[in-house]
């Protein structure tokens, strides 16, 4: 009961100057599902919970000292090429095109509309990274 459904032990919290733009991008590009949205007294997004696959994360309106904050996320999918192209079609910028990496993942990189980096990946080997 210490952790809500859909959340893991560590979860992402993204701060952006235009949360509506990022939320709409994530829904279109990565098929994110909006779970909950709460507004601050001034009408800005205080917190929006999104879910992609089996992972929940949060987005909020960036205010000082969080202005300009970006992050990088490692995102596992079934079809890297399809998700990469869908992200580009919805406003992402390519960081690198999908390719098979020497560590056993197929991976492509994009930057979203708020400047966050997403490594879109699929494990090609039936083993973990530690093996």
Write a brief caption for the model.
This protein is of the alpha/beta class and 131 residues long. The protein has helices at residues 19-30, 80-89; strands spanning 13-16, 33-39, 45-52, 55-61, 72-76, 93-100, 105-111, 117-123.
3D architecture notes:
- The protein has 2 helices and 8 strands; from the N terminus they run βαββββαβββ.
- The chain has helices spanning 19-30, 80-89, and strands at residues 13-16, 33-39, 45-52, 55-61, 72-76, 93-100, 105-111, 117-123.
- The strands form 2 sheets. Strands 1-4-3-2 form a 4-stranded mixed beta sheet, covered by helices on one side. Strands 5-8-7-6 form a 4-stranded mixed beta sheet, with helices on one face.
- Strand 3 and strand 4 form a beta hairpin.
- Helix 1 (19-30) packs antiparallel against helix 2 (80-89).
Element layout with pairings:
Blueprint: E1 13-16, H1 19-30, E2 33-39, E3 45-52, E4 55-61, E5 72-76, H2 80-89, E6 93-100, E7 105-111, E8 117-123
């Amino acid at each position: 009961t210490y952790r809500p459904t859909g959340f893991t032990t560590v979860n992402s919290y993204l701060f952006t100057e235009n949360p509506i733009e990022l939320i709409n991008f994530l829904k279109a590009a990565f098929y994110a599902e909006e779970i909950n949205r709460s507004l601050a007294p001034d009408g800005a997004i205080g917190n929006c919970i999104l879910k992609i696959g089996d992972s929940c994360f949060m987005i909020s309106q960036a205010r000082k000292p969080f202005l300009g904050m970006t992050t990088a996320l490692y995102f596992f999918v079934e079809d890297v090429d399809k998700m990469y192209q869908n992200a580009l079609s919805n406003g992402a910028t390519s960081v690198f095109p999908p390719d098979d990496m020497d560590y056993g993942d197929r991976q492509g990189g994009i930057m979203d509309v708020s400047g966050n980096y997403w490594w879109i990946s699929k494990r090609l080997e039936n083993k973990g990274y530690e093996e």
